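User: These chains co-purify. Model them together.
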Amino acid sequence: MGILEVQNVNKRFGGLQALNNVNLSVTEGSVHALIGPNGAGKSTFLNCLIGKLKPDTGSVMFDGKPVLGKKPHEINQLGVSRVFQTPEIFSDLTVFENVMIPCFAHRDGAFKVNAFARVLRDKEIRQQAEHMLEDMGMKDKMNAHAGSLSRGDKRRLEMAMCLVQEPKLLLLDEPTAGMARADTNNTIDLLKHIGETRNITKVIIEHDMHVVFSLATTISVLAQGTIIAEGLPEEIKGHPKVREAYLGEAEV
Amino acid sequence: MNLMKDRLLLIIFACVVLAAPLIFAPTGAAYPDLLQRFAIYGIFAIGFNILFGLTGYLSFGHAAFLGVGSYSAVWMFKLLSMNIVPALLLSIVIAGVFSLLIGYISLRRSGIYFSILTLALAQMCYNLAYSVLTPLTNGETGLQLRLDDPRILDAAGDAGSLPSTNFFGLEMKEVFWNPTIFGYDLQFNWGYYVCALLLILSFWISIRIFRSPFGLILRAVKTNQTRLNYTGINSRPYTLAAFVISGMFAGLAGGLLATMDPLAGAERMQWTVGGEVVLMVVLGGMGTLSGPVLGAVFIKYFENIFSKINDGVLHGWFAIMPEWIENAMVLIVSPFVGKGWHLTLGALFMIVVIFLPGGLVEGAQKIGAKLSGANKRAAKVGIE
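Assistant: Joint model of the two components:
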């Protein structure tokens, strides 16, 4: 039984069957990549996992608990963090404040009126945030405006915000989309670094084969709303169905 | 470091507020009635800034809470006692209940839809006060004190004249000290000092909220609500809490208006009043600590002093010039003062929004930074 169990998920948008009986099992500690050509339903699938969309049928179990119909903040409180395609950060706040907010969410839950506590007096939260920034190599930028960071740093900050909550599962939605090769390699190194220091299960949705084959321990291929293949990276590379649906086009 | 600055800011603020009858003397605004209005609208704006400045949710409906506060206070004067304490407490509670209801409905939407919902609901309150709720609000005449009101706690002593509002015996209207300093005839009255203490208290509460985790999360709501929700925080109760807190501040302000003059009319709930507080906060500097009070003082000063400058006064100003220049100057300036004070305020508002999006506080910071030669960032941190 994996940490994330998806069973028979179907989603229809009008006449389009976006997801057709998708089954997926993610084992704890693995890096599970979900790949597939454009329009395969990867984003729809991810949105079903994190509570943005509700599938028509099927079930999604995380850590033994059903998550379907739950709101994004509830799913996060269960231990699922998400990294977005374009980094979603609090750009008007400082880097330090950006990292403190997830710390508060992790400690105090989804809602707590602590209007008379002082942020700066909260040693526990400060230390957590500082450690995380140090680990990410961003301590020197602690007081910078998050909006003024470079794109790579924004990605790094978003990653820090997710990791500081010590999630059980990290969802990454095309973390290198639109990045230059150097930035992509930095992101890969960052993710490898995270993998070495923490035991977090990751689900990566990705276009870039280079990223997928450098990180993934398991790969599932989604095409036209169904999983057509699943296995170790080497198996997927040589899988005829996958070549036909996806790699074939790319490697002509 | 930051803590020290906040403390210093609070001390300076308190000194200015407490010495206001002296400070405002040269501007001609140092009479108790206007000073009290400064303080009351300052409280109103401080509360509004907690919602608008921190979360960015723009409400046009806060006049309703001001009005509700006034009505509650007057009812307390009628039924229980002329002491202002129960009246103010009831104002805050009832305004809190109203803002909980209106906030719960309006906060289902954000952006312009939220603004429209608050506007519609407040306008509804206003119209109800005029029509269906006449038994409670006394309609167009407004809710007034009467000699035959029960006033359970007050001994039925003072027959013949209407009693006045008091704070445990200190009459709000009473001028307790009337010195002449630097040739100015100063008036210190209890009413202003009650409002002033509440203003300082409100300012302190707002500093604490700004520096708290709660305030940090409210600021996060403004910059990126999606990220906040995916960070495991339910933004709805946070915004609702901010809405209710600001509504309670508005209720307190409304109650204080009723302590000045125990009369509550529906015109206090009109949307223009709700629009005015938006102007105050934007003009002073939204999201800053001292901006809202500055904005409130500015607008109330314009409304009460600038609007009284007539042609006669203008002729006095330009009397040293040759007559034809004098007449020309009066002709040019007169549309902007007196009845035309809105024109000046409008122009000023435009200038602030275009050139100083951070309001008057930002302007003061820029000037301060230039004067001290310190770099801009240090100054910004300093005044915020």
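Chain A has nine helices and ten strands.
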